[in-house]
Hints:
Blueprint: H1 7-28, H2 30-41, H3 44-64, H4 66-70, H5 76-94, H6 96-104, H7 114-117, H8 120-131, H9 136-142, H10 150-166
Helix pairs in contact: 1-3, 1-5, 2-3, 2-5, 2-8, 3-5, 8-10
Amino acid sequence: xPESPDPADGRxxxxxxxxxxxxxVARMNKHQLWSICVxxxxxxxxxxxxxxxxxxxxxxxxxxxxxxxxxxxxxxSRRLTETVYRCVLDAASDSLAADRxxxxxxxxxxxxxxxxxxxxxxxxxxxxxxxxxxxRSASCDLLDIPGDGDEILDRVTQVLLRxxxxxx
Length: 168
C-alpha cells in the first residue's frame, strides 16, 4: 500500500519557496528599506537595528502562514513586499531613535537641511513611490496617507530641488 504524503513535507515545500521569495524581495528592496530606516532614525546604528527588527518581524509573520502568501489574487512578491515594508515601517516608527529624532527636530530652525525640512513619512513615501515596485496606492496605504500622495510628493520634490540648487 502506498504511503500517504506527510503534511509536514508540503508545509516545508511551501516554506522553502516562500523563504526564497522573501530573500529575493528583501534583497531587491534593501537600499530603499535602508534609506527609510535612516529617514526615521537619522542615525545609522539605530537604522541598522530597526531594519534588522523590521525584517525579523516580517519573516516571523511570513513563516507562520506561508500558504497565505501563496494564495490569492495578487502575486506572491507583491504580498511579501507589502509585508516587508509594513513591518520595517512599523519598526521604524516605533523605534526609540525615531522618537528622539522627532523630539529633537524643532521646526523652523535656521539650519534646516532637506532631511529636517521633511518628515520621515514624506521621505518614505518618496522613496517607496519612486524606487519600490509597490504601486502608489499601496505605498500610501502602508504609510496611512489619505489620497494618492500627490501633495506630499510635490512638497518633497520642491524641497529636494531647493536643496540641490543651494548646493550648486
